[in-house]
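Obj.: predict assembly geometry.
Materials: sequence records (below).
Method: joint structure prediction, all chains together.
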Amino acid sequence: MLKCSETVLNELQTRGWTLADSPDVFLAQVVAELQIRFSVPDDLPPNLIQRGTVRCYARVMFETCGLDGAARQKRAFQELWEYLYPRAVYRLHETGAAQDVTQQTLVKIYQKRITCRDPGSFLRWGEQILFHEISERFRQLYERRLTARGIEYVAHELAIEDLGADVSEDSSQADQVLVDPRQNTPEAAFTEPMRSALLAAVRACLQNERQVRVVVELFLSDKSFLEVAEQLQTTPLNVQVMRSRALKKLRDCAEMQRLVADWDL
Amino acid sequence: MNSNFDRYEALRARMRERAERYPRPLQRLGDALWNVQDDQLSHAACLEELPAFIEAELAGDVVSKLEPQVKHHLDRCDSCAQIYAELLDTEWAQQHGTLSKPADLALPDLSFLPRTKRSLREVVLEQTTALLNTLAPEHNRELNVIAHTFFARVEQLGTFELRPGAAPAMGLGQQDTNPALILLAACYAATQTLTREITLTQFEQWARQESFQPELEARLFAAARAIGIERDAAARFARTFAEQIVQDPRPLRSLLLAD
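Observations (raw C-alpha cells):
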C-alpha cells in the first residue's frame, strides 16, 4: 500500500487538510473506500486514489463541522472556506463579492449540515450551496438594473465563437453516432430512413453543427455533460449553454414538430 | 390559460399515442422539448442527488445507467442543468489548472459558530501555571510531571482530599507540602465548585458588584479547605486566585454554562 499511502498523504498536504487525526487510520479508511469498487487499490491511477481521499476527508469534515464548541470545528470551517473561496472567485471574478457569498455559504452549511445526505459528497454539496448564493446575487443585481432604468432587458449572450476553440463543422461526426454499432441500446441503432430524417430535421432547425452534436450526444447517445465536453473540447458550462439554445430552437421548429408528429417509419 | 401549453398539447398527445413506436432516445428528446413538466423526478430530488451524481461521474461511472432518472431530468430541466454544469465546470477548471488559488485567501468570520468550549482540565492547568508563577515559580516544572496522573485520579474519584503521602505517592519527594500539587488540587477543586454552583449570568452580575473579590476569595478558601489544604496555604491560594480571576475572568467564564 506504499503508493496508495504516498498519494493520500500528498493529497492531504497539497490541500492543507489537517483534520485527519491519525494518518494510519485515515489511510485505512481510504483503502476501504477504494476496495468497495476496486480489488487492488495500490494499482489504481493516482486520480482515483485522490478521489477516494477526497470522499473520505469529506466525511471527516462533515463530522467535524458538527462538533459545536470544539476548536476543531473552527478549523473545519476554515478549511471549507479555503476550498470554496477560490471557486467563488473563479465564478465572480471579484474578490469582494466572492468573500460575501462564501461567508453566507459557510453560515448556510452550518445551519443545514445535517440535510447533506451523503457525507462523502459534503464538499460538492457545499459547492452547490455556494452556487445558489452566487445565483441569488446575480438575480438581485439583475432586478436592480431593471428598476433603475425602467424596462430594459440586460442579457449576457455568448457568441458561438466564445464556446470553444477549433469548432469542427464536420457533420459526419453526428451522423457517425447514429450508426455506431457499439450503441448499447437497440433503439439507438436507427434505421437509415429514421436516421436521415431525424438528422435533417435537427440540422434544418439548428443551423449549427456543434449544437447538432450536443443534441445527438446528450439525447441520442445518452452521454453526460462531462463526456460531451471532453468530446467537443469545451467546458461543461458551454455544453449547457449550447444545449439550452438548441432545445429552444428545436421546440418551436416546424420541421422538428412535423417529424415527431408523423413519426411512423 | 398558458398558450405555450396549448401549442404543444397536440404534440404531447400524439407522442403519448404512439409512445411504443418511438425509439427511446427520440422519446427523451421529445420529452425535453415538449413534455418538460411530466418528469418522474422533482427539482428538489434531483438537486439532492446531484453531489453524489457528480462524484460518480468524475469517478468514471456511466451515470446514465447508474442514475437514469437524474440524468434525464438534467437533460430536460434548464435550472438543474445549469447548477450541474457549474459544479462540473469548477471541477473541470481544477483538473485543467485554471482554478487558481487567489493570492490572498482572506479570512472567514466564524463568529456564527458556538463559542469554543474549553475543558476543565485545560483551564485548571492554565490557571495553576499562572498561580505557580506568582507563588512558587521554582516548582513550575513539576506541574507537567504530576498533572496527567492527578487528573486521571480525580476524574476517577469524583471528589477527593489531599491525604498525607499524596506527594510521595506521585514521586514528588518525601515531603507532603509540594506546592505544585497543592495549587493544582486547590485550583481544580475551586474551579469545579464554582462551575457547579453558579451560572454565567450569575457570574456576570456578581462580577459587577464591589463585593465580588472578597466573596470570591471566601469561596475559594472554603473549597481549598474542603480538600484538606492547611489554613495558611489555603488563604494564600484563595487571595492570589481571586486576584487572578478578577484581572482576567475569561478562562473561568468559558466553563460556565449559559442559563
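Conclusions so far: The CA atoms of residues 102 and 108 of chain B lie 14 Å apart.
To do: check interface contacts against the pulldown list.
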